Amino acid sequence: MRAPRRMRHALADGRAAFDGARALLNEAWCYGGNPLAHSAKAAAGRAHRIVAGTAMQTCGAIGLTAEHDLHRYVARGFQIDSLCGSYAQLESLFAEQLFNSHVSGGGLPPVVVCA
């Protein structure tokens, strides 16, 4: 039996967020640096939020009971996300740093630089 169309799209969005977070993690591992590591952590926290919400929608009420393991993974993910700043705190910190470095009359600094 196939999942309904909306559910398939939500699952695909969760997978895309997960793959993006993993790619940032690989870049942070290769090149290092605090900004890259913090952006990887923020992306992982956001991906967890998306995937957890989709999994809860997919499993329904059984995902919240002790008979299913989903609630353990969701709770553990939220605990890990809160260590050293949640994804929301890190994203607001990045936005603050980006707009505080802006000088009037000039453009915003580049966020992604291709070498």
First-residue to last-residue Cα separation: 47 Å
Question: Architecture, according to CATH?
Answer: Up-down Bundle
What is the H/E order? HHHH
Name the CATH superfamily assignment: Butyryl-CoA Dehydrogenase, subunit A, domain 3
Low-confidence segments: none
Helix content: 55-70%
Q: What is the count of distinct domains?
A: 1
Task: Output the number of helix runs.
Answer: 4
Average pLDDT reading = 82
Structural class: mainly alpha
Please tally the β strands and state the result.
Answer: 0
The gross shape turns out to be elongated
What does this protein structure show overall?
The protein is an all-alpha fold. It has one domain: Butyryl-CoA Dehydrogenase, subunit A, domain 3, CATH 1.20.140.10. It contains four helices and no strands. The relative contact order is 0.11. The model has no long low-confidence stretch (mean pLDDT 82).
